[in-house]
């Protein structure tokens, strides 16, 4: 009866923890203790009850041993138990030592990024084409400052290759911020916005004293430096026609007066 109950539990997918649904536990190489997953280890070993001197995270790529949750057999990292034959994780990555029965996440391993991505946040469409930033997950979210490598929240990769929480990106867009907080490149196609700004520039003539004022700008998207006519609405990149630019040379508008010479204003 006990084995039948265990089998029903396995088939029902109830094994694992609050972080992952799986049929194995891992043996931490750092402290030689057994945990359901690396998040369980990190939560335990970094709690306020632990002396700060002994707090640490689990080095996930160094895991060598796993324990089958059904028959308790300790073994080398592999997808199927060597004793009872149960599949310990429908998704299995030998490089990341990662098991998960919830394949609805559409997981895949990115060699360039060195980590498993979830397709719901890192679409498989860009699996082989997205920009890989070295150790992209080994930093804090630029909005909420949570360490991304250990986060359980959904992540998204921007066109520039930088990573942040999906909810943080949505909140940023609600405040009409459409550039990467790390490198300032556009986070999406803003062609419609640039066309509207073209119209704004056209219907907003500058005062006569400012019409010959030229400034140097750097495009955040294509990184081209160009010299353009100053306008209060924005400065358009000559190469990619976007307005995601910043002025890098040229006197502030408040310093350019009708009495100033043309050389002073350029």
What does the model show?
There is one protein chain. This protein has helices spanning 2-11, 38-45, 166-174, 191-203, 262-265, and strands at 24-27, 34-35, 65-68, 74-76, 91-93, 98-100, 107-110, 115-118, 155-157, 163-165, 214-219, 225-229, 245-249. With 266 residues, it is of the alpha+beta class. 22% of the residues are buried. The model is unreliable at 1-12, 120-127 and 252-266 (pLDDT under 50).
Keywords, please?
four-stranded antiparallel sheet; disordered C terminus; three-stranded antiparallel sheet; 13 strands; 266 residues; 17% helix; disordered N terminus; alpha+beta
Which helices and strands, and how do they pair?
Layout: H1 2-11, E1 24-27, E2 34-35, H2 38-45, E3 65-68, E4 74-76, E5 91-93, E6 98-100, E7 107-110, E8 115-118, E9 155-157, E10 163-165, H3 166-174, H4 191-203, E11 214-219, E12 225-229, E13 245-249, H5 262-265
Antiparallel strand pairs: 1-2, 1-3, 3-4, 5-6, 7-8, 9-10, 11-12, 11-13
């Amino acid at each position: 009866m006990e084995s039948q109950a265990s089998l029903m539990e396995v088939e029902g997918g109830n094994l694992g923890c609050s972080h992952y649904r799986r049929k194995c536990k891992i043996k931490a190489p750092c402290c030689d203790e057994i945990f359901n997953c690396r998040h369980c280890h990190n939560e335990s070993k970094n709690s306020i009850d632990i002396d700060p001197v002994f707090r640490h995270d689990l080095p996930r790529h160094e895991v060598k041993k796993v324990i089958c949750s059904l028959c308790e057999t300790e073994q080398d990292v592999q997808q199927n138990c060597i004793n009872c034959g149960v599949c310990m994780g429908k998704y299995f990555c030998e490089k990341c030592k990662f098991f998960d029965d919830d394949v609805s996440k559409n997981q895949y391993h990115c060699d360039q990024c060195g980590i498993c991505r979830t397709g719901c946040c890192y679409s498989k469409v860009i699996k082989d084409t997205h920009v890989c930033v070295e150790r992209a997950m080994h930093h804090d979210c630029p909005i909420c400052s949570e360490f991304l490598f250990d986060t359980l929240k959904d992540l998204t990769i921007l066109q520039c290759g930088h990573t942040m929480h999906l909810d943080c990106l949505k909140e940023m867009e609600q405040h009409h911020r459409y550039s990467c907080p790390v490198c300032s490149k556009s986070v999406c196609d803003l062609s419609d916005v640039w066309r509207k700004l073209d119209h704004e520039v056209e219907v907003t003539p500058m005062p006569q004293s400012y019409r010959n004022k030229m400034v140097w700008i750097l495009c955040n998207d294509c990184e081209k430096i160009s010299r353009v006519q100053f306008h209060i609405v924005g400065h358009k990149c000559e190469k990619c026609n976007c307005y995601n630019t910043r002025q890098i040379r040229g006197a502030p508008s408040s310093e350019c007066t009708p009495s100033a010479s043309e050389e002073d204003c350029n």
